[in-house]
User: Fold these one by one.
Assistant:
Number 1:
Amino acid sequence: MDKYELIEIEFTEIDGLKVGHAQDTQAATGCTAIICEEGATAGVDVRGGSPGTRETDLLDPQNLVDKIHAVMLSGGSAFGLDAASGAMKYLEERDIGFDVQVTKVPIVCSAVLFDLVVGDYRVRPDFKMGYEACENATNRECPNGNIGAGTGATVGKFLGIERAMKGG
């Protein structure tokens, strides 16, 4: 192997990392939880014409919090940010989080994608779906594509939603 050759690895090959999905295939939306119970150092680069995020400011290296416990990726546009609350509850129940002496605060960063025009816009990833994605998290082989946050994902919207193609 060439010393500069890139090697593809799965998320689940990284010790301590679990991935889980939950989705509503009829409504074409869902969410994906990436959990690191021991905490992980993370960074972010926010892009796009209308980014929707939660707690990504915590990833600034100058901040007190130096580890996160989960990332929630979600459909539902800004409505989908609620799925991260389900992850927070899931982690809180397991005593996982940033220790502030009186409790542990789970650090869950979240980002959303716009899928409201793909399926039923009235159905969105929420607290319950976020919690379910965490319950489904495993360190075994994890499917990808049109599942979880990728359920209603589209690409190629630069010239308008009518030109979008299925992604995931």
Note: The chain is about 10% helix and 25% strand.
Number 2:
Amino acid sequence: MNEVPRINENGKIGPRDSSRVPRYAGAATYALLPTVEEVHAAGGDVDIAVMGAPFDTGVSFRSGARFGPTHIRESSRLLRPYNPATQTSPFAQAQVADAGDMVINPFDIHAAIDDVERQADEITSGGTTLVTLGGDHTIVLPLLRSAARQAGRPVAVVHFDAHLDTWDTYFGAEYTHGTPFRRAWEEGLMDTDALCHVGTRGPLYGPKDLEDDARFGFGIVSSSDIHRQGCASVVEGLRQRVEDAPLYISVDIDVLDPAHA
């Protein structure tokens, strides 16, 4: 079998070289990066693993996020390795590899949460940082359990989302895409001095939603705040809030303008 041409820098195995192999050819790993197995076979260690969590049994409205990891990988074929805005080649700074998809029970949400937590632990227990492609936001709870365990303490959270996701239950169910941060607060997984929602907008069920959210320790930077303050000011505020705490970042796709996502 022919060796796959790759863009390798700083001793890191990088993405397939799209100037020598068409981007539409071959299996779609994230950004056409090597798999974890390929890196290990070459004698390397993985600094950052990208792993899919194809699960959407926790949604209250539209399903389909289970196909998210597949479509993110397909779309990421177009990524090039150099970022002119930051003047860096990110994949030359750390060894990034695709770890495939988690195997998650699609019928039993309690089993699914356990599945995500266990497989996250398997990746991070050796010191590898995990980037997870969802999947609905139910997966945040088991990922926070794993992150807090690996950090040995509650973690800071910066949560990019149109919604709070700190509600209590839906139809009496405690584990849904709208409840992960309340469950995480109840379990003591988050550093309550270092929590923030970013990009929040839209209607709520009532003022108690905001009262509960503040009680859990979250600050809110709404989409209107971002427009008024500008990105640089918002980023500096987040740095001051998080400081040097271990950080979990969650990005829900609906933080983007609904015209685009």
Note: The mean pLDDT is 96.
Number 3:
Amino acid sequence: MQQESTMRVFYRRNTDTIRLLFITIVIFITMSSLSSRFLRPNNFLSMGFQIPELGLYSIAMMLVMITGGRDLSIVGIGNLSCIVAALIMRDGYAAGLAGGAMIMNILLGVMAALLVGVVCGLFNGIIVAFTGLPSMLVTMATSYIFTGIGVVLTNGEAISKVYPEYVYFGNNSALGLPIPLWFLIAALLITWLLLNKTRYGFEIKMVGSNPLASRFSGINIHSVLIKTYLISGIFCAVCGLEILARTDSAKANYALTYTFQAILCAVLGATDPNGGYGKVSTLVLSLISMQLLSSGFNMLRLGTYFKEFAWGVLLLVVLSANFLNNEISRRRYVAKMNKRAAQEDGS
């Protein structure tokens, strides 16, 4: 009985992780059986280079969703950061900078990109925090602003030809793993520490779950929101830098579908769309699941439109499943409380 009770407690505490692990295994087995090329080492290496982009955007989205918001400007921030870095590095490369001057120029591009992420994140956070406007509408507007700035800076064209030494980091491996994947692992670790080992992690969950109670408990909601959007902007900028290193190009409208995919990844990873809850471990599993699906679709030669259709269906299924699960839990809780009340009345 004690063992059974322990197993039940373990399952209840890790339901989301177990469910996602099962989904990941099913997807892996299904894609392996549908395509003989799926299990090739080169396929997994390719996935290792592709997953950091969606992963970084998903982290940015998850943090904002924990506050109860949505950030539709993540791709706009990432692309604008990428463009600013590309313009600086392209000019330096064209000027023939080498040695220490080249390193300083690359660092200048990286710092400028991160500064763009900070400024854009602060811009979003200040508007959302002090106006009370819905974050989805605010970030939809700022997304167009950031994309528009990118179009002006590039004249609507792609910026390319930066330092090969910088591009090296986006297309090579270290210690058996793609270098961009190491940056994603570091970002996931930082996010886990923020959510689980800092006061900010407690505050962001409180703000998302019950803003009124948070205010009465002394939490500065404005500060928490601004910090969250700022951190989100930094992760987006890092993603932009990774995209530049991998593709050797920057474009104002690069990969706009990542916004929707990041929302799907966060929700699939058990982040509560209403705010207050999100876990890094389940986000990792959802990232793996979506990358396995995406790679499988590519190998089966299914077009982009089918993938977008599949992502939409998957999001509806996940939202419906979460709603049913919450409704079942609510009814069980109500039944339990009614039973306890009846027992107390009978005694």
Note: The radius of gyration is 22 Å.
